[in-house]
Description:
Largest sheet: 9 strands, mixed
Radius of gyration: 21 Å
Oligomer: single chain
CATH superfamily of the largest domain: Spore Coat Polysaccharide Biosynthesis Protein SpsA, Chain A
Amino acid sequence: xxxxxxxxxxxxxxxxxxxxxxxxxxxxxxxxxxxxxxxxxxxxxxxxxxxxxxxxxxxxxxxxxxxxxxxxxxxxxxxxxxxxxxxxxxxxxxxxxxxxxxxxxxxxxxxxxxxxxxxxxxxxxxxxxxxxxxxxxxxxxxxxxxxxxxxxxxxxxxxxxxxxxxxxxxxxxxxxxxxxxxxxxxxxxxxxxxxxxxxxxxxxxxxxxxxxxxxxxxxxxxxxxxxxxxxxxxxxxxxxxxxxxxxxxxxxxxxxxxxxxxxxxxxxxxxxxxxxxxxxxxxxxxxxxxxxxxxxxxxxxxxxxxxxxxxxxxxxxxxxxxxxxxxxxxxxxxxxxxx
Length: 339
C-alpha cells in the first residue's frame, strides 16, 4: 500500500464505534506533549505523524506510548500528506477504527470532546465530518492571537467546511480518497467540498473542541499567514471555481480588488490629478468603519477584526500572485510557514 494512499476496506458487519486520533506536527516541543497527553486521556488508538522534527518530538511521542510515522520528506511536505499517512498507519494497526479525529500538535483536546463528537456521528449517519469550537489559548498575548480566535468562531450547525481539527467518518474519508496530498493549504475545505458532492454533510457543534497555541506575536507572522490564505483562495478557485460551487471565487476577487485594483487606481489618479488623487485612499478607512459597525462582538473586537479584514487583502493579493506564478511555472510551492 502506498504510504499516502487512504483506500482500504472496513470489515463488513461491524457496528461503528471505534475512534482513533491522528496528531501531526513538527518541532512543537512542549505543545506536542500537552497535545498527546490530552488525547491519550480520551483514546487508546493514537498515532503521531512527524514531519522532520529536530527537537526530539519523535522520542517524546514514543515515551508517551504513542507510535510515530515519520513522513518521507523527499516529497515536499504538506499537512494533507501527513494526515493521509496518519490514517494509513492508524488503520494498519487498528483496522477497527470507524472515526478519525485529526488534530494539530500545537493544540490540546478538551476533555470529553472525542466522546461528544463520536456520539454525534453515531446518531447522524449522513454526517461525514463533525467539529467544534477551536479556541486560542492566549488571545491576550497579541492582537494576532486574538484575531485567530475570532476567525475560528464559525456558525453553528450544518456548514460547508471544517478546519484542521475535526472528526471524520473513515468510510466517507476513504470513499473520496482522503486529502489531496499536493495541496499546501486549504486542504480541509477542498476535502469537505468533495464529501458534500458525494452526498455527505459537514457539521459544527456548539461545543468546545480544542485549545490552540497560535504563538503569533509579530506582524510578519500574521502577514505570512494571510499570504498563505490568499494562495489557498487562488488554489481552491482554480480547482473548483466553476458553477455551482464557485469555491473561493468571491474571496479571490475581493483580494484582487482591495489588494491590487484599488491601489492601481490610486496610482493612476495621482498621476493624473497629483496629490488630490490620494483621496481615493479614503475607501479603506470607510470600509473599516462599515465592517466595524456591522460587527456582532465587543467594540474592541469589532474594530480590530474590521481593520484586519481590510489590511489582509494586501498579503492575500500577493498570495494570489504567487499562486499564478507557480501555476505558470508548473511547480508546486513549498509550504508557506509563519512560525
